[in-house]
Write a structure and sequence with these properties.
With 304 residues, the protein is an alpha/beta fold. It is 38% helix and 14% strand. The strands form two sheets. The chain has a seven-stranded parallel beta sheet with strand order 3-2-1-4-5-6-7, with helices on both faces. It starts with 7 loop residues before the first strand and ends in an 11-residue tail after the last strand.
C-alpha cells in the first residue's frame, strides 16, 4: 500500500513538467489526483496516464490566478487532503525593461494563485482534521539571479506564504512547506536557460536533470524530508532540492568576492548542513539570520 493511500491530492499546474511528474508519483503512491491546469488536453493526457497505470486521475481546466475558475474547480473535485501549489511561470528580462503589467501578471500567476488555491482547499482540510500543503518556490527565493528580479520577488513571496500558513495553522493539523528547485529539464527550465543565454549569461556545465517520478524520487525524497505530503513531523520548511544553477558558484565572483568564498568554504566544512550566504567584513563571521538552510528544520512548536 502506498504512502498516500486513501488521500485526495490536488495539483495545480499538474499536467506537464515537474507538476506532471508529481501527479504520476502521487497516484503511484495511492492518492486520487485532481490535476488543475490551463491546458485541458495536457491535463487529460496526464489523468489518462494515471488511469492506465491503475490509479485514479481527474483533469480540470482552470486559470488558477482567477478566483471564479478556482472556485469552480474546487467544487467539481471536492475536499482534499493534499494540495500541491505548483502552477507558475517566469519573466526573464532586465529589471529596467520590466513593465508594470508584467509585474502584476506574474504576481497573479505565481503568488495570487497560491492564495486562491489554498483558500479554496484549506477549509475542507480543516473539516477533515488536517492536511498537507506544498508550495513550489525556487532557489531564486534565497539566492538572487540576474535578469529575474520580478521572478525572484514572486518566489520570495511564495517562500514566506508557506511559512506563514504553517505557523497560523500549526495547531490545527495543517503542515505547509516549500520546495525550492534549481534548473530542471522541463519546458520551463529549458526556456529559462535559453532566455538567460540570449541575454549573455552562461549555461550550466552539466546536463540539466529531468523531472522524475517513481523509484528515483524515493531516494531523492526520503521519508523524513518535508516534500512528502504523507509525512508529519516537519513543517514551515524550505527544501532546496537541486543546486544546478545557471552560474556555478565558482563562476560567480561578481556575486561573492574571493575572500567571502574562502570564509564560506571554511564555514561549510564545520557546518555541513548550512551555507552562510553573507559575512561581516570586520569579523568574517556569518551574519545571523542570513544562513541558507541546506536541510529540513523543524518548527519547535510542532508536536513530534
Amino acid at each position: 500500500m502506498g504512502r498516500l493511500a486513501g488521500k485526495v491530492a490536488v495539483i495545480s499546474g499538474g499536467a506537464t513538467g515537474m507538476g506532471g511528474a508529481a501527479s504520476l508519483l502521487f497516484a503511484a503512491e495511492g492518492a486520487s489526483v485532481a490535476i488543475i491546469d490551463r491546458d485541458l488536453a495536457a491535463a487529460q493526457a496526464a489523468a489518462q496516464a494515471i488511469t492506465a497505470a491503475g490509479g485514479r486521475g481527474f483533469a480540470f481546466q482552470a486559470d488558477v490566478s482567477q478566483a471564479d475558475q478556482v472556485a469552480a474547480a474546487e467544487r467539481a473535485q471536492g475536499p482534499a487532503n493534499v494540495l500541491f501549489n505548483h502552477a507558475g511561470t517566469i519573466v526573464i528580462k532586465p529589471f529596467l525593461d520590466t513593465t508594470e503589467a508584467e509585474w502584476d501578471w506574474l504576481h497573479a500567476v505565481n503568488v495570487k494563485s497560491m492564495f486562491l488555491m489554498t483558500k479554496a482547499i484549506l477549509p475542507g482540510m480543516l473539516a477533515q482534521g488536517g492536511g498537507s500543503i506544498v508550495c513550489t518556490s525556487s532557489i531564486s527565493a534565497v539566492a538572487g539571479t540576474p535578469m529575474e528580479v520580478l521572478y525572484d520577488t514572486t518566489k520570495g513571496a511564495v517562500h514566506m506564504f508557506a511559512r506563514a500558513i504553517a505557523v497560523e495553522f500549526r495547531g490545527r493539523g495543517i503542515r505547509c512547506n516549500a520546495v525550492c528547485p534549481g534548473f530542471i529539464a522541463t519546458p520551463h527550465g529549458l526556456r529559462e536557460v535559453a532566455a538567460l543565454q540570449a541575454l549573455g549569461w552562461t549555461c550550466p556545465r552539466r546536463r540539466l536533470p529531468p523531472p522524475r517520478a517513481g523509484s528515483a524520487n524515493r531516494k531523492r525524497w526520503p521519508k523524513r524530508r518535508c516534500f512528502w505530503p504523507a509525512m508529519r513531523p516537519v513543517s514551515s520548511t524550505a527544501r532546496i532540492c537541486l543546486w544546478t544553477t545557471v552560474l556555478p558558484r565558482s563562476d560567480r565572483p561578481q556575486l561573492r568576492p574571493a575572500a567571502h568564498q574562502a570564509r564560506a568554504a571554511a564555514a561549510s566544512s564545520s557546518c555541513p548542513r548550512s551555507r552562510p550566504d553573507r559575512f561581516d567584513d570586520s569579523t568574517g563571521k556569518p551574519i545571523p539570520g542570513l544562513i541558507l538552510s541546506m536541510g529540513p528544520f523543524s518548527n519547535p512548536a510542532l508536536p513530534r
